Amino acid sequence: MSILLIVEQVLNGLQFGVMLFLMAAGLTLIFGVMGLINLAHGSLYMVGAFAAAAVAGLTGSFLLALMAALAAAALVGALVEMVVIRRLYRSAHLDQVLATFALILIFSEGTRWLFGSFPLYLDIPEALSGPVTLPGGIQYPLYRLTLIAVGLIVALGLWWLIERTRIGIQIRAGKNDREMIAALGVDISKLYTVIFALGAALAGLAGALVGAIQSVQVGMGEPVLILAFVVIVIGGIGSIKGAFIGAILVGLTDTLGGIFLPALFKLFMDPSTASQSGSALASMLIYILMSLVLIWRPTGLFGVRG
Amino acid sequence: MIPERWINWAVLAALIAVPLWALLADAPFTITLTTRVVILAIAAVGLNIALGIGGLVSLGHAVFFGIGGYAMGILASHAQTYVPLELFGMSIEGTKSMPIIWLTATLLSALIAYLIGLLVLRTSGVYFIMITLAFGQMFYYFAISWAAYGGEDGLSIYVRNEFPGLNTLVPIQFYGLCLSILVCVLFLKARLVASPFGLVLNAARQSSVRVETVGLNPARIKLLAFVISGAITGLAGALFADLNRFVSPQMFSWQLSGELIVFIIIGGVGRLMGPVIGAAVFVLLEHWLGGLTEFWQICLGAILLGIVLFARGGVVGLLTGKEGAHV
After folding, report:
1. What is the reported pTM?
2. How far is B244 from chain A, CA to nearest CA, in Å?
Protein backbone atom coordinates (compact mmCIF):
# COMPACT_ATOMS: atom_id res chain seq x y z
CA MET A 1 0.00 0.00 0.00
CA SER A 2 1.83 3.03 -1.22
CA ILE A 3 1.51 6.61 -0.09
CA LEU A 4 0.54 7.49 -3.67
CA LEU A 5 -2.52 5.30 -3.49
CA ILE A 6 -3.53 6.77 -0.15
CA VAL A 7 -3.25 10.36 -1.40
CA GLU A 8 -5.19 9.46 -4.53
CA GLN A 9 -7.97 7.83 -2.54
CA VAL A 10 -8.16 10.71 -0.08
CA LEU A 11 -8.58 13.07 -3.02
CA ASN A 12 -11.28 10.80 -4.47
CA GLY A 13 -13.02 10.82 -1.12
CA LEU A 14 -12.85 14.61 -0.96
CA GLN A 15 -14.25 14.91 -4.46
CA PHE A 16 -17.13 12.60 -3.59
CA GLY A 17 -17.65 14.51 -0.36
CA VAL A 18 -17.89 17.99 -1.88
CA MET A 19 -20.36 16.77 -4.49
CA LEU A 20 -22.47 15.26 -1.70
CA PHE A 21 -22.25 18.62 0.01
CA LEU A 22 -23.83 20.35 -2.99
CA MET A 23 -26.82 18.01 -2.60
CA ALA A 24 -26.95 18.08 1.17
CA ALA A 25 -26.65 21.88 1.40
CA GLY A 26 -29.86 22.43 -0.54
CA LEU A 27 -31.72 19.75 1.39
CA THR A 28 -30.65 21.01 4.78
CA LEU A 29 -31.41 24.63 3.84
CA ILE A 30 -34.89 23.69 2.64
CA PHE A 31 -35.53 21.69 5.76
CA GLY A 32 -34.04 24.24 8.08
CA VAL A 33 -36.04 27.17 6.75
CA MET A 34 -39.26 25.62 5.44
CA GLY A 35 -39.42 22.46 7.56
CA LEU A 36 -39.89 20.38 4.43
CA ILE A 37 -38.47 16.94 3.68
CA ASN A 38 -37.90 16.85 -0.06
CA LEU A 39 -37.42 13.40 -1.60
CA ALA A 40 -37.57 14.95 -5.07
CA HIS A 41 -34.22 16.68 -4.55
CA GLY A 42 -32.61 13.75 -6.37
CA SER A 43 -34.82 14.48 -9.36
CA LEU A 44 -33.41 18.00 -9.54
CA TYR A 45 -29.92 16.47 -9.59
CA MET A 46 -31.08 14.36 -12.53
CA VAL A 47 -32.67 17.37 -14.27
CA GLY A 48 -29.35 19.20 -14.04
CA ALA A 49 -27.43 16.27 -15.48
CA PHE A 50 -29.85 15.77 -18.36
CA ALA A 51 -29.99 19.47 -19.19
CA ALA A 52 -26.18 19.55 -19.26
CA ALA A 53 -25.93 16.44 -21.43
CA ALA A 54 -28.54 17.76 -23.87
CA VAL A 55 -26.95 21.20 -24.20
CA ALA A 56 -23.44 19.77 -24.45
CA GLY A 57 -24.70 17.48 -27.19
CA LEU A 58 -26.15 20.43 -29.11
CA THR A 59 -23.45 23.02 -28.62
CA GLY A 60 -20.38 21.07 -27.61
CA SER A 61 -19.62 23.60 -24.91
CA PHE A 62 -19.19 22.37 -21.35
CA LEU A 63 -19.55 25.85 -19.88
CA LEU A 64 -22.90 26.36 -21.63
CA ALA A 65 -23.91 22.90 -20.42
CA LEU A 66 -23.18 23.86 -16.81
CA MET A 67 -25.14 27.10 -17.18
CA ALA A 68 -28.03 25.12 -18.66
CA ALA A 69 -27.89 22.68 -15.73
CA LEU A 70 -28.03 25.51 -13.20
CA ALA A 71 -30.81 27.31 -15.04
CA ALA A 72 -32.92 24.22 -15.73
CA ALA A 73 -32.68 22.93 -12.18
CA ALA A 74 -33.41 26.34 -10.66
CA LEU A 75 -36.34 26.89 -13.00
CA VAL A 76 -37.83 23.45 -12.44
CA GLY A 77 -37.24 23.88 -8.71
CA ALA A 78 -39.01 27.26 -8.62
CA LEU A 79 -41.88 25.88 -10.67
CA VAL A 80 -42.31 22.80 -8.50
CA GLU A 81 -42.19 24.97 -5.40
CA MET A 82 -44.92 27.26 -6.68
CA VAL A 83 -47.21 24.52 -7.98
CA VAL A 84 -46.82 21.72 -5.41
CA ILE A 85 -44.35 22.23 -2.59
CA ARG A 86 -45.93 25.50 -1.40
CA ARG A 87 -49.05 23.59 -0.35
CA LEU A 88 -47.04 21.22 1.81
CA TYR A 89 -45.23 23.50 4.26
CA ARG A 90 -47.92 23.14 6.89
CA SER A 91 -48.62 19.47 6.15
CA ALA A 92 -47.49 16.46 8.16
CA HIS A 93 -44.15 14.91 7.19
CA LEU A 94 -46.04 11.90 5.86
CA ASP A 95 -47.82 14.07 3.28
CA GLN A 96 -44.53 15.70 2.30
CA VAL A 97 -42.90 12.30 1.83
CA LEU A 98 -45.76 11.10 -0.35
CA ALA A 99 -46.11 14.19 -2.47
CA THR A 100 -42.38 14.36 -3.15
CA PHE A 101 -42.33 10.59 -3.80
CA ALA A 102 -45.06 11.24 -6.39
CA LEU A 103 -42.86 13.97 -7.88
CA ILE A 104 -40.00 11.46 -8.23
CA LEU A 105 -42.27 9.12 -10.19
CA ILE A 106 -43.40 11.96 -12.45
CA PHE A 107 -39.88 13.30 -13.01
CA SER A 108 -38.26 9.92 -13.58
CA GLU A 109 -40.86 8.65 -16.01
CA GLY A 110 -41.12 12.06 -17.67
CA THR A 111 -37.37 12.09 -18.26
CA ARG A 112 -37.49 8.52 -19.58
CA TRP A 113 -40.24 9.62 -21.95
CA LEU A 114 -38.23 12.60 -23.17
CA PHE A 115 -34.77 11.06 -23.39
CA GLY A 116 -35.35 7.30 -23.51
CA SER A 117 -33.98 4.60 -21.22
CA PHE A 118 -30.43 4.58 -22.51
CA PRO A 119 -27.85 6.52 -20.52
CA LEU A 120 -26.46 9.70 -22.03
CA TYR A 121 -22.82 10.64 -21.86
CA LEU A 122 -21.40 13.99 -21.00
CA ASP A 123 -17.76 14.46 -21.96
CA ILE A 124 -15.17 16.11 -19.79
CA PRO A 125 -14.11 19.35 -21.53
CA GLU A 126 -10.84 19.24 -23.44
CA ALA A 127 -9.12 21.79 -21.20
CA LEU A 128 -9.84 19.79 -18.04
CA SER A 129 -9.16 16.27 -19.29
CA GLY A 130 -6.03 14.35 -18.60
CA PRO A 131 -3.98 14.09 -15.43
CA VAL A 132 -2.10 16.76 -13.58
CA THR A 133 1.04 16.22 -11.57
CA LEU A 134 0.75 17.20 -7.93
CA PRO A 135 3.69 18.03 -5.66
CA GLY A 136 5.34 14.75 -4.76
CA GLY A 137 4.92 13.39 -8.27
CA ILE A 138 1.34 12.20 -7.83
CA GLN A 139 -0.69 11.98 -11.02
CA TYR A 140 -4.32 12.91 -10.52
CA PRO A 141 -7.15 13.64 -13.01
CA LEU A 142 -7.45 17.40 -13.46
CA TYR A 143 -11.23 17.22 -13.78
CA ARG A 144 -11.67 15.61 -10.36
CA LEU A 145 -9.36 18.20 -8.85
CA THR A 146 -11.53 20.89 -10.45
CA LEU A 147 -14.61 19.31 -8.86
CA ILE A 148 -12.99 19.60 -5.44
CA ALA A 149 -12.18 23.25 -6.12
CA VAL A 150 -15.69 24.01 -7.39
CA GLY A 151 -17.21 22.32 -4.34
CA LEU A 152 -15.04 24.32 -1.95
CA ILE A 153 -15.78 27.58 -3.78
CA VAL A 154 -19.51 26.90 -3.62
CA ALA A 155 -19.21 26.09 0.08
CA LEU A 156 -17.42 29.40 0.68
CA GLY A 157 -19.96 31.23 -1.46
CA LEU A 158 -22.83 29.75 0.53
CA TRP A 159 -21.18 30.74 3.77
CA TRP A 160 -20.78 34.29 2.45
CA LEU A 161 -24.37 34.35 1.20
CA ILE A 162 -25.81 33.24 4.49
CA GLU A 163 -23.56 35.12 6.89
CA ARG A 164 -22.87 38.34 4.96
CA THR A 165 -25.78 39.26 2.72
CA ARG A 166 -29.28 40.61 3.20
CA ILE A 167 -30.94 37.50 1.84
CA GLY A 168 -28.76 35.46 4.19
CA ILE A 169 -30.09 37.43 7.12
CA GLN A 170 -33.62 36.72 5.92
CA ILE A 171 -32.85 33.02 5.58
CA ARG A 172 -31.45 32.85 9.09
CA ALA A 173 -34.38 34.84 10.42
CA GLY A 174 -36.78 32.56 8.55
CA LYS A 175 -35.26 29.57 10.34
CA ASN A 176 -35.97 31.09 13.73
CA ASP A 177 -39.35 32.72 13.33
CA ARG A 178 -41.23 32.86 10.09
CA GLU A 179 -44.16 34.88 11.45
CA MET A 180 -41.89 37.58 12.79
CA ILE A 181 -40.03 38.18 9.56
CA ALA A 182 -43.30 38.12 7.61
CA ALA A 183 -44.53 40.80 10.01
CA LEU A 184 -41.38 42.81 9.29
CA GLY A 185 -42.42 43.03 5.66
CA VAL A 186 -40.37 40.27 4.04
CA ASP A 187 -42.33 38.50 1.31
CA ILE A 188 -42.01 35.07 2.84
CA SER A 189 -43.43 33.07 -0.05
CA LYS A 190 -41.02 34.72 -2.47
CA LEU A 191 -38.16 34.01 -0.06
CA TYR A 192 -39.18 30.33 0.07
CA THR A 193 -39.27 30.09 -3.71
CA VAL A 194 -35.80 31.64 -3.91
CA ILE A 195 -34.38 29.25 -1.31
CA PHE A 196 -35.93 26.27 -3.04
CA ALA A 197 -34.58 27.37 -6.42
CA LEU A 198 -31.14 27.93 -4.87
CA GLY A 199 -31.13 24.40 -3.41
CA ALA A 200 -32.33 23.04 -6.74
CA ALA A 201 -29.60 24.86 -8.63
CA LEU A 202 -26.93 23.38 -6.33
CA ALA A 203 -28.35 19.90 -6.91
CA GLY A 204 -28.47 20.50 -10.65
CA LEU A 205 -24.85 21.69 -10.64
CA ALA A 206 -23.79 18.56 -8.76
CA GLY A 207 -25.71 16.40 -11.25
CA ALA A 208 -24.01 18.01 -14.23
CA LEU A 209 -20.52 17.90 -12.71
CA VAL A 210 -20.81 14.27 -11.62
CA GLY A 211 -22.60 13.40 -14.87
CA ALA A 212 -19.34 13.95 -16.71
CA ILE A 213 -17.57 11.18 -14.76
CA GLN A 214 -20.53 8.80 -14.54
CA SER A 215 -23.32 8.20 -16.99
CA VAL A 216 -26.40 10.40 -17.10
CA GLN A 217 -29.47 8.22 -16.59
CA VAL A 218 -32.92 8.06 -15.07
CA GLY A 219 -32.80 7.14 -11.40
CA MET A 220 -29.26 8.54 -10.92
CA GLY A 221 -30.48 10.99 -8.29
CA GLU A 222 -32.00 8.76 -5.64
CA PRO A 223 -28.88 6.91 -4.42
CA VAL A 224 -27.18 10.31 -4.07
CA LEU A 225 -30.26 11.69 -2.34
CA ILE A 226 -30.17 8.93 0.27
CA LEU A 227 -26.45 9.50 0.85
CA ALA A 228 -27.21 13.19 1.26
CA PHE A 229 -29.77 12.22 3.91
CA VAL A 230 -27.06 10.27 5.72
CA VAL A 231 -24.86 13.37 5.49
CA ILE A 232 -27.58 15.57 6.96
CA VAL A 233 -28.38 13.14 9.74
CA ILE A 234 -24.69 13.05 10.68
CA GLY A 235 -24.22 16.81 10.41
CA GLY A 236 -27.51 17.82 12.01
CA ILE A 237 -30.56 18.96 10.07
CA GLY A 238 -30.58 22.62 9.13
CA SER A 239 -26.86 23.20 9.63
CA ILE A 240 -24.81 24.09 6.55
CA LYS A 241 -21.60 23.62 8.50
CA GLY A 242 -22.84 20.22 9.62
CA ALA A 243 -23.69 19.32 6.03
CA PHE A 244 -20.17 20.22 4.93
CA ILE A 245 -18.40 18.24 7.63
CA GLY A 246 -20.85 15.37 7.28
CA ALA A 247 -20.35 15.28 3.52
CA ILE A 248 -16.57 15.16 3.77
CA LEU A 249 -16.78 12.46 6.47
CA VAL A 250 -19.14 10.33 4.39
CA GLY A 251 -17.14 10.86 1.21
CA LEU A 252 -13.86 9.84 2.86
CA THR A 253 -15.36 6.93 4.81
CA ASP A 254 -17.04 5.44 1.77
CA THR A 255 -14.08 5.80 -0.56
CA LEU A 256 -11.35 4.78 1.85
CA GLY A 257 -13.45 1.94 3.33
CA GLY A 258 -14.01 0.44 -0.09
CA ILE A 259 -10.26 0.32 -0.73
CA PHE A 260 -8.75 -0.39 2.64
CA LEU A 261 -11.21 -2.77 4.32
CA PRO A 262 -10.67 -5.65 1.86
CA ALA A 263 -6.92 -5.02 2.15
CA LEU A 264 -7.16 -5.00 5.93
CA PHE A 265 -9.15 -8.24 5.95
CA LYS A 266 -6.50 -9.89 3.78
CA LEU A 267 -4.12 -9.68 6.71
CA PHE A 268 -6.01 -12.40 8.58
CA MET A 269 -8.26 -14.11 6.02
CA ASP A 270 -7.80 -15.90 2.76
CA PRO A 271 -7.92 -13.45 -0.18
CA SER A 272 -11.30 -14.33 -1.72
CA THR A 273 -13.21 -14.31 1.59
CA ALA A 274 -11.38 -11.13 2.55
CA SER A 275 -12.34 -9.24 -0.59
CA GLN A 276 -15.94 -10.47 -0.32
CA SER A 277 -16.56 -9.70 3.33
CA GLY A 278 -14.39 -6.59 3.09
CA SER A 279 -16.46 -5.07 0.33
CA ALA A 280 -19.72 -6.19 1.97
CA LEU A 281 -18.72 -4.43 5.19
CA ALA A 282 -17.41 -1.42 3.26
CA SER A 283 -20.81 -0.97 1.64
CA MET A 284 -22.32 -0.68 5.12
CA LEU A 285 -19.61 1.53 6.60
CA ILE A 286 -21.25 4.95 6.24
CA TYR A 287 -24.47 3.62 7.78
CA ILE A 288 -22.47 2.28 10.70
CA LEU A 289 -20.86 5.72 10.99
CA MET A 290 -24.34 7.25 10.98
CA SER A 291 -25.52 4.86 13.71
CA LEU A 292 -22.54 5.70 15.88
CA VAL A 293 -23.15 9.42 15.52
CA LEU A 294 -26.80 8.85 16.38
CA ILE A 295 -25.97 6.93 19.52
CA TRP A 296 -23.59 9.67 20.55
CA ARG A 297 -25.70 12.67 19.47
CA PRO A 298 -29.25 11.87 18.32
CA THR A 299 -29.62 15.25 16.58
CA GLY A 300 -26.37 15.06 14.65
CA LEU A 301 -23.02 16.75 15.18
CA PHE A 302 -24.26 20.31 14.74
CA GLY A 303 -28.00 19.85 15.18
CA VAL A 304 -30.09 21.84 17.57
CA ARG A 305 -30.85 19.81 20.67
CA GLY A 306 -34.36 19.05 21.78
CA MET B 1 -72.34 7.52 2.74
CA ILE B 2 -71.21 3.94 3.15
CA PRO B 3 -70.25 2.74 6.65
CA GLU B 4 -66.66 1.51 6.91
CA ARG B 5 -67.82 -1.88 8.19
CA TRP B 6 -69.64 -2.57 4.90
CA ILE B 7 -66.56 -1.65 2.90
CA ASN B 8 -64.49 -4.08 4.97
CA TRP B 9 -66.85 -6.97 4.29
CA ALA B 10 -67.14 -6.03 0.61
CA VAL B 11 -63.34 -6.11 0.22
CA LEU B 12 -63.17 -9.50 1.91
CA ALA B 13 -65.98 -10.82 -0.29
CA ALA B 14 -64.16 -9.59 -3.40
CA LEU B 15 -60.94 -11.29 -2.27
CA ILE B 16 -62.87 -14.57 -2.11
CA ALA B 17 -65.07 -14.10 -5.17
CA VAL B 18 -62.53 -12.87 -7.73
CA PRO B 19 -60.16 -15.86 -7.56
CA LEU B 20 -63.07 -18.31 -7.47
CA TRP B 21 -64.43 -16.66 -10.61
CA ALA B 22 -60.95 -16.84 -12.13
CA LEU B 23 -60.81 -20.54 -11.25
CA LEU B 24 -64.11 -21.20 -13.04
CA ALA B 25 -63.16 -19.02 -16.00
CA ASP B 26 -59.77 -20.76 -16.13
CA ALA B 27 -57.79 -17.52 -15.77
CA PRO B 28 -54.78 -18.51 -13.63
CA PHE B 29 -53.07 -15.17 -14.25
CA THR B 30 -55.87 -13.36 -12.43
CA ILE B 31 -55.29 -15.65 -9.45
CA THR B 32 -51.57 -14.81 -9.49
CA LEU B 33 -52.40 -11.11 -9.70
CA THR B 34 -54.77 -11.39 -6.74
CA THR B 35 -52.14 -13.33 -4.80
CA ARG B 36 -49.76 -10.46 -5.40
CA VAL B 37 -52.35 -8.03 -4.08
CA VAL B 38 -52.89 -10.13 -0.96
CA ILE B 39 -49.18 -10.51 -0.19
CA LEU B 40 -48.40 -6.82 -0.71
CA ALA B 41 -51.44 -6.06 1.43
CA ILE B 42 -50.00 -8.18 4.27
CA ALA B 43 -46.76 -6.18 4.07
CA ALA B 44 -48.66 -2.89 4.11
CA VAL B 45 -50.90 -3.99 7.00
CA GLY B 46 -47.69 -4.67 8.88
CA LEU B 47 -46.35 -1.22 8.09
CA ASN B 48 -49.71 0.31 8.99
CA ILE B 49 -49.30 -0.85 12.59
CA ALA B 50 -46.22 1.34 12.93
CA LEU B 51 -47.39 4.12 10.61
CA GLY B 52 -51.14 4.25 11.03
CA ILE B 53 -51.46 3.71 14.77
CA GLY B 54 -48.02 4.72 15.96
CA GLY B 55 -47.34 7.56 13.51
CA LEU B 56 -43.89 6.09 12.77
CA VAL B 57 -43.28 7.06 9.14
CA SER B 58 -40.87 4.29 8.25
CA LEU B 59 -39.44 4.72 4.78
CA GLY B 60 -37.36 1.58 5.20
CA HIS B 61 -39.86 -1.21 5.64
CA ALA B 62 -38.51 -2.93 2.55
CA VAL B 63 -35.73 -4.06 4.91
CA PHE B 64 -38.10 -6.49 6.58
CA PHE B 65 -39.69 -7.50 3.30
CA GLY B 66 -36.22 -8.32 2.01
CA ILE B 67 -35.17 -10.12 5.19
CA GLY B 68 -38.25 -12.34 4.89
CA GLY B 69 -37.49 -12.93 1.23
CA TYR B 70 -33.88 -13.84 1.87
CA ALA B 71 -34.82 -16.06 4.83
CA MET B 72 -36.92 -18.06 2.39
CA GLY B 73 -34.32 -17.89 -0.37
CA ILE B 74 -31.43 -19.03 1.81
CA LEU B 75 -33.28 -21.88 3.52
CA ALA B 76 -34.77 -23.14 0.26
CA SER B 77 -31.52 -22.84 -1.70
CA HIS B 78 -29.71 -24.95 0.91
CA ALA B 79 -32.50 -27.53 0.70
CA GLN B 80 -32.20 -27.40 -3.08
CA THR B 81 -28.47 -28.14 -3.10
CA TYR B 82 -28.46 -30.43 -0.03
CA VAL B 83 -25.60 -28.41 1.40
CA PRO B 84 -26.22 -27.52 5.05
CA LEU B 85 -25.91 -23.90 6.13
CA GLU B 86 -22.89 -23.35 8.37
CA LEU B 87 -23.67 -20.73 10.97
CA PHE B 88 -21.75 -20.01 14.18
CA GLY B 89 -20.30 -23.52 14.15
CA MET B 90 -23.74 -25.09 13.76
CA SER B 91 -24.75 -26.98 10.69
CA ILE B 92 -28.35 -26.18 9.72
CA GLU B 93 -30.22 -28.18 7.11
CA GLY B 94 -32.10 -26.15 4.50
CA THR B 95 -35.83 -26.66 4.34
CA LYS B 96 -38.67 -26.46 1.85
CA SER B 97 -41.35 -26.41 4.54
CA MET B 98 -43.38 -23.20 4.51
CA PRO B 99 -44.31 -23.16 8.21
CA ILE B 100 -40.64 -23.34 9.23
CA ILE B 101 -39.67 -20.71 6.65
CA TRP B 102 -42.47 -18.41 7.80
CA LEU B 103 -41.44 -18.78 11.42
CA THR B 104 -37.80 -18.05 10.54
CA ALA B 105 -38.74 -15.06 8.40
CA THR B 106 -40.99 -13.62 11.10
CA LEU B 107 -38.52 -14.10 13.95
CA LEU B 108 -35.56 -12.82 11.96
CA SER B 109 -37.45 -9.72 10.82
CA ALA B 110 -38.59 -9.12 14.38
CA LEU B 111 -34.99 -9.34 15.59
CA ILE B 112 -33.73 -6.94 12.92
CA ALA B 113 -36.67 -4.61 13.61
CA TYR B 114 -35.73 -4.65 17.29
CA LEU B 115 -32.10 -3.74 16.56
CA ILE B 116 -32.98 -1.04 14.01
CA GLY B 117 -35.79 0.18 16.27
CA LEU B 118 -33.40 0.66 19.20
CA LEU B 119 -31.44 3.08 17.02
CA VAL B 120 -34.08 4.86 14.97
CA LEU B 121 -36.53 5.39 17.82
CA ARG B 122 -33.96 7.59 19.53
CA THR B 123 -35.00 10.12 16.92
CA SER B 124 -38.32 11.32 15.59
CA GLY B 125 -39.86 13.31 12.77
CA VAL B 126 -37.71 13.90 9.71
CA TYR B 127 -34.66 12.23 11.25
CA PHE B 128 -36.73 9.07 11.64
CA ILE B 129 -37.79 9.13 7.99
CA MET B 130 -34.27 9.75 6.69
CA ILE B 131 -32.65 7.14 8.92
CA THR B 132 -35.12 4.38 8.11
CA LEU B 133 -34.52 5.20 4.45
CA ALA B 134 -30.77 4.99 5.00
CA PHE B 135 -30.98 1.61 6.74
CA GLY B 136 -33.02 0.33 3.82
CA GLN B 137 -30.24 1.38 1.48
CA MET B 138 -27.65 -0.28 3.73
CA PHE B 139 -29.37 -3.67 3.42
CA TYR B 140 -29.81 -3.12 -0.30
CA TYR B 141 -26.10 -2.61 -0.87
CA PHE B 142 -25.25 -5.43 1.50
CA ALA B 143 -27.46 -7.82 -0.49
CA ILE B 144 -25.82 -6.66 -3.72
CA SER B 145 -22.32 -7.30 -2.44
CA TRP B 146 -23.23 -10.62 -0.79
CA ALA B 147 -22.02 -12.89 -3.57
CA ALA B 148 -22.68 -16.15 -1.67
CA TYR B 149 -26.41 -15.70 -2.23
CA GLY B 150 -26.49 -14.40 -5.75
CA GLY B 151 -25.37 -10.82 -5.17
CA GLU B 152 -26.94 -8.49 -7.67
CA ASP B 153 -28.51 -11.32 -9.67
CA GLY B 154 -30.55 -12.68 -6.78
CA LEU B 155 -31.49 -16.27 -6.04
CA SER B 156 -33.86 -18.50 -7.95
CA ILE B 157 -35.79 -21.28 -6.27
CA TYR B 158 -36.93 -23.88 -8.76
CA VAL B 159 -39.95 -25.35 -7.00
CA ARG B 160 -42.32 -23.54 -4.66
CA ASN B 161 -41.98 -24.56 -1.02
CA GLU B 162 -44.32 -27.08 0.54
CA PHE B 163 -47.18 -26.82 2.98
CA PRO B 164 -48.44 -30.00 4.68
CA GLY B 165 -51.64 -31.26 3.07
CA LEU B 166 -51.64 -28.81 0.17
CA ASN B 167 -50.20 -28.64 -3.30
CA THR B 168 -48.78 -25.12 -3.31
CA LEU B 169 -48.02 -25.30 -7.02
CA VAL B 170 -51.74 -25.03 -7.74
CA PRO B 171 -52.31 -21.24 -7.80
CA ILE B 172 -55.63 -21.28 -5.98
CA GLN B 173 -54.24 -23.35 -3.09
CA PHE B 174 -51.30 -21.01 -2.60
CA TYR B 175 -53.73 -18.12 -2.83
CA GLY B 176 -55.89 -19.68 -0.11
CA LEU B 177 -52.82 -19.86 2.16
CA CYS B 178 -51.93 -16.22 1.56
CA LEU B 179 -55.51 -15.05 2.05
CA SER B 180 -55.75 -16.97 5.34
CA ILE B 181 -52.61 -15.21 6.55
CA LEU B 182 -53.98 -11.83 5.47
CA VAL B 183 -57.20 -12.49 7.39
CA CYS B 184 -55.22 -13.52 10.49
CA VAL B 185 -53.06 -10.41 10.22
CA LEU B 186 -56.09 -8.14 9.76
CA PHE B 187 -57.75 -9.78 12.76
CA LEU B 188 -54.58 -9.23 14.80
CA LYS B 189 -54.44 -5.60 13.70
CA ALA B 190 -58.10 -5.03 14.64
CA ARG B 191 -57.53 -6.59 18.05
CA LEU B 192 -54.33 -4.59 18.56
CA VAL B 193 -56.08 -1.30 17.82
CA ALA B 194 -58.72 -2.03 20.44
CA SER B 195 -56.28 -3.39 23.03
CA PRO B 196 -54.70 -1.35 25.81
CA PHE B 197 -51.44 -1.56 23.86
CA GLY B 198 -53.09 -0.08 20.77
CA LEU B 199 -54.68 2.70 22.78
CA VAL B 200 -51.39 3.67 24.38
CA LEU B 201 -49.64 3.53 21.00
CA ASN B 202 -52.32 5.74 19.52
CA ALA B 203 -51.89 8.13 22.41
CA ALA B 204 -48.11 8.08 22.01
CA ARG B 205 -48.51 9.18 18.40
CA GLN B 206 -50.57 12.15 19.49
CA SER B 207 -48.43 13.14 22.46
CA SER B 208 -45.45 11.24 23.82
CA VAL B 209 -45.18 13.63 26.72
CA ARG B 210 -48.71 12.99 27.97
CA VAL B 211 -48.24 9.25 27.76
CA GLU B 212 -45.11 9.62 29.87
CA THR B 213 -46.98 11.81 32.34
CA VAL B 214 -49.46 9.04 33.11
CA GLY B 215 -46.55 6.76 33.92
CA LEU B 216 -46.24 4.73 30.72
CA ASN B 217 -43.12 4.38 28.61
CA PRO B 218 -43.86 5.56 25.04
CA ALA B 219 -40.44 4.49 23.74
CA ARG B 220 -41.02 0.86 24.71
CA ILE B 221 -44.52 0.86 23.24
CA LYS B 222 -43.26 2.29 19.96
CA LEU B 223 -40.41 -0.20 19.84
CA LEU B 224 -42.84 -3.08 20.34
CA ALA B 225 -45.07 -1.70 17.59
CA PHE B 226 -42.06 -1.38 15.27
CA VAL B 227 -41.08 -5.00 15.99
CA ILE B 228 -44.58 -6.39 15.38
CA SER B 229 -44.83 -4.27 12.26
CA GLY B 230 -41.47 -5.46 10.92
CA ALA B 231 -42.26 -9.10 11.70
CA ILE B 232 -45.50 -9.02 9.68
CA THR B 233 -43.82 -7.29 6.73
CA GLY B 234 -41.07 -9.93 6.92
CA LEU B 235 -43.62 -12.73 6.71
CA ALA B 236 -45.08 -11.05 3.63
CA GLY B 237 -41.56 -10.96 2.15
CA ALA B 238 -41.23 -14.74 2.53
CA LEU B 239 -44.59 -15.23 0.78
CA PHE B 240 -43.65 -12.80 -1.99
CA ALA B 241 -40.40 -14.66 -2.62
CA ASP B 242 -42.37 -17.90 -2.78
CA LEU B 243 -44.87 -16.38 -5.22
CA ASN B 244 -42.08 -15.40 -7.62
CA ARG B 245 -39.76 -18.26 -6.64
CA PHE B 246 -37.09 -15.57 -6.78
CA VAL B 247 -35.34 -13.26 -4.33
CA SER B 248 -33.19 -10.28 -5.28
CA PRO B 249 -31.77 -7.12 -3.71
CA GLN B 250 -34.72 -5.36 -5.36
CA MET B 251 -36.82 -6.55 -2.40
CA PHE B 252 -34.76 -4.15 -0.26
CA SER B 253 -35.13 -1.19 -2.61
CA TRP B 254 -36.29 2.21 -1.38
CA GLN B 255 -38.96 2.28 -4.11
CA LEU B 256 -40.63 -0.67 -2.43
CA SER B 257 -40.57 1.08 0.94
CA GLY B 258 -42.20 4.07 -0.74
CA GLU B 259 -44.80 1.91 -2.45
CA LEU B 260 -45.81 0.29 0.85
CA ILE B 261 -46.57 3.76 2.21
CA VAL B 262 -48.39 4.57 -1.02
CA PHE B 263 -50.70 1.56 -0.53
CA ILE B 264 -51.67 2.82 2.90
CA ILE B 265 -52.33 6.35 1.67
CA ILE B 266 -54.33 5.30 -1.39
CA GLY B 267 -56.52 3.18 0.88
CA GLY B 268 -56.68 5.56 3.82
CA VAL B 269 -54.32 5.92 6.81
CA GLY B 270 -55.29 4.04 9.94
CA ARG B 271 -58.16 2.20 8.23
CA LEU B 272 -58.31 -1.55 8.70
CA MET B 273 -58.79 -2.33 5.01
CA GLY B 274 -56.85 0.71 3.78
CA PRO B 275 -53.67 -1.20 2.86
CA VAL B 276 -55.66 -3.96 1.14
CA ILE B 277 -57.60 -1.51 -1.01
CA GLY B 278 -54.42 0.47 -1.70
CA ALA B 279 -52.47 -2.63 -2.76
CA ALA B 280 -55.36 -3.70 -5.01
CA VAL B 281 -55.63 -0.28 -6.65
CA PHE B 282 -51.85 -0.14 -7.13
CA VAL B 283 -51.55 -3.61 -8.68
CA LEU B 284 -54.55 -3.01 -10.95
CA LEU B 285 -53.18 0.36 -12.07
CA GLU B 286 -49.81 -1.24 -12.71
CA HIS B 287 -51.50 -3.98 -14.72
CA TRP B 288 -53.96 -1.89 -16.73
CA LEU B 289 -52.12 1.38 -17.19
CA GLY B 290 -48.88 -0.57 -17.58
CA GLY B 291 -50.53 -2.40 -20.47
CA LEU B 292 -51.55 0.87 -22.10
CA THR B 293 -48.35 2.85 -21.68
CA GLU B 294 -44.83 2.22 -20.56
CA PHE B 295 -44.98 5.45 -18.60
CA TRP B 296 -47.87 4.55 -16.31
CA GLN B 297 -45.96 5.75 -13.25
CA ILE B 298 -46.53 9.35 -14.40
CA CYS B 299 -50.27 8.71 -13.94
CA LEU B 300 -49.59 7.03 -10.60
CA GLY B 301 -47.59 10.06 -9.51
CA ALA B 302 -50.37 12.42 -10.56
CA ILE B 303 -53.02 10.34 -8.75
CA LEU B 304 -50.85 10.25 -5.65
CA LEU B 305 -50.33 14.01 -5.72
CA GLY B 306 -54.08 14.45 -6.11
CA ILE B 307 -54.75 12.25 -3.09
CA VAL B 308 -52.21 14.02 -0.90
CA LEU B 309 -53.30 17.50 -1.89
CA PHE B 310 -57.06 17.06 -2.24
CA ALA B 311 -58.46 13.71 -1.04
CA ARG B 312 -56.64 13.11 2.19
CA GLY B 313 -58.77 10.22 3.44
CA GLY B 314 -57.86 7.96 0.49
CA VAL B 315 -60.38 5.58 -1.06
CA VAL B 316 -62.00 4.61 2.26
CA GLY B 317 -62.22 8.30 3.16
CA LEU B 318 -63.97 9.06 -0.13
CA LEU B 319 -66.43 6.17 0.26
CA THR B 320 -67.29 6.83 3.88
CA GLY B 321 -67.31 10.57 3.39
CA LYS B 322 -65.16 10.94 6.48
CA GLU B 323 -61.65 12.27 6.18
CA GLY B 324 -60.97 11.35 9.81
CA ALA B 325 -58.01 9.28 8.89
CA HIS B 326 -57.14 7.95 12.29
CA VAL B 327 -58.32 4.89 14.13
Report:
1. 0.90
2. 25
